[in-house]
Amino acid sequence: MKNIAIIVPETSIMQAIADPRYMFTAANEFLKSEGKRPLFNVELVGLKKQVTLMNDRVTVHPDKTIDEVKEVDLIFIPAISGDLHVAIEKNKEFYPWIVSQHEKGAEVASLCIGAFLLAATGLLDGKKCSTHWLSANDFRDMFPQVELIDGSIISDENGIYSSGGANSYWSLLLYLLEKYTSRETAILASKFFAVDIDRDSQNKYMMFKGQRNHKDDAIKKVQDYIEANIEEKMTIDELAAMVAVGRRSFERRFKDATNNTLIEYIQRVKIEAAKRALETSRKNIAEVMFGVGYTDTKAFRDLFKRITGLTPIEYRNKYNKMSMEVTEELV
Question: Which residue among 59, 124, 173, 277 is least crowded, i.e. fewest CB within 10 A of its CB?
């Protein structure tokens, strides 16, 4: 029997507590239907016997408090909400317990921005991690010692797991279910819960938001220029000259301020503009490409797919309602 502890932190999101519980208790039923013994003992674990969530709208009664848990194989840290600094402080009594259980052999998995609580334990120091793409800049600022993987659905660091944003955590739940049971059971669960199995990227859902939580006014001026002139071709030397900074110093300052190289930043801004055009207009791919300053169709397509995980045509067909209406009319 595998003992699974789903912690119930203050400010946690109810669904991120209920979903892993539902997944692994349902897996027990799948196993029983195949004539096998249930494998998982799933318990909610808190700092106290009653935890209120959603501004006191919901009350959760954990099965045990942390001092009552004798042995655990897998700990889930659910997503949290609200002020992240406050959430980290409110739940600090969990951290020594999580570290202690991990040292005894327990694996630890964070769901979505539960990664902030996992990082606060110190277990992620020097390791890779996933979280919701919208919280990426905050995560890097708060935990520079952790390597955040942009766009990743799942990270696996030898028994320490994390997942990307929102419903991406279902991919991690399936991943862990397969690890503890079998591929067949994971596929059955994916069909039961109507969740794609083996999805490995959240890039198609990401919206690039340039890091502006810094005090380098020269770099902010360049960011403003890039975002206001997406149709222009730009060179590093031209942008450095704009703010009268030497090229090497300029590149270093830009990376320090934005967590992106200048070339990465320009590419991400242009592709974000291309995504918006594909989502909201009837422009063809060439018009969108020229509108963001690219003339090489292959280079644009390759860059777009690398950043979003989809080709421009695939992206338009997935997210542009007008293109779907045109397709339906043709049919």
Answer: 59
**Gap between the Cα atoms of 34 and 189, Å rounded:** 13
CA distance 145 to 156: 17
191 with 147, same domain? Answer: yes
pTM: 0.65
Asked if residue 91 and residue 58 are part of one domain, the reply reads yes
**Does 324 score more than 70 pLDDT?**
no
Nearest in space to 323 (alpha carbons), one of 268, 271, 285, 272: 285
> How many domains does the chain contain in total?
2
pLDDT band at 97 (very low <50, low <70, confident <90, very high): very high
* Pairing between β-strand 74-77 and β-strand 107-110 as defined by DSSP bridges: parallel
Whether 24 and 168 share a structural domain: yes
φ, ψ for residue 121, nearest 5 deg: -75, -20
The pair of structure tokens assigned to 216 is: 């380098």
Q: Residue 321's pLDDT band (boundaries 50, 70, 90)?
A: low
16 CB-side CA count, 13 A:
31
How many residues belong to the chain? Answer: 331
Sheet of 40-46: strands edge to edge? 64-65, 40-46, 2-7, 74-77, 107-110, 160-163, 154-156
Whether residue 49 is found in the same domain as residue 183: yes
Write down the pLDDT at residue 326: 41
* H or E, element range at 34: none
In the chain, at which residue ranges do the beta strands (DSSP E only) sit?
Answer: 2-7, 40-46, 51-53, 58-60, 64-65, 74-77, 107-110, 128-129, 147-148, 154-156, 160-163
Which structural domain, as residue segments, surrounds residue 88? 2-205
Positions of E strands within 160-237: 160-163
CA torsion sign, 134 to 135 to 140 to 146? negative
Q: Specify whether the CB–CB gap between 1 and 39 falls below 8 A.
A: yes
